[in-house]
Design a protein that fits this description.
Arc Repressor Mutant, subunit A, 249 residues, Beta-Lactamase, 39% helix, 2 domains
Length: 249
Amino acid sequence: MKKLDHKADMRKFRLEVQKKIGEYQFRPKAYSSLQNFPLNNKQCLYVAHWNKEGIIFEKGLEALTGYTLEEFNTEDLVHHIHPEERELVNRLTQEVVKYVIDVDLGKGPAHLFLSFRFRKKDGTYIKILRQSSSFELDEKGRMVSNFSLLTDISFLDTGNRVEWDFKANGLDLEDFKNIIYKVYQNYFTSREKEIINLIDRGQTNLLISENLFISKHTVATHRKNILKKAGVSNTVDLIEFCKKNGIID
């Protein structure tokens, strides 16, 4: 299977959205108020305008990430996400945008909280929390632009996994999760899923080996690989990861 070029995929998506909302009627907001938005040295902000050329305003971006505005569009952001997390963040971002450009947010705002590993211009990775909200709406309440606040949360021991939460007017969260979880459809092998389900039932390596007719050593090897794939260090976090991401019920 050909590997997806996430940068090209996001650029294609951005241009499709730009074309779709090109006829939206909206009253532009002044970005001058954001110039005074309080930031600490671990934060930056930007505005992504989906009716224009993507990210068109920033504050503190270069100080936090090393990138200038010219080097940092929506597709560049996805490209700089850790390869292990890029597919999920790419899908989440696109599905959220698809939703908010079609729903009336005048009846209630939309908020996305998303954490991931991000590569700075110097090549080092930091853990980022991105808090995004609708910024400009058209006359029907549909999103035209969004405001995002990036915070370096590398000091927190959150593990190497994507965490997210999305709230918006009229959202059926379970349906939305089912769309997102397609990313994890083939994340673990059938055997690994069997083992995860047995771990969830509290079974030891010995019991799992007896149930699956494989050696205890093989189970231990699978368990080690499963933890590594999930980016966690213990079974409690593993089960939380799998349930949150629809891998097990």
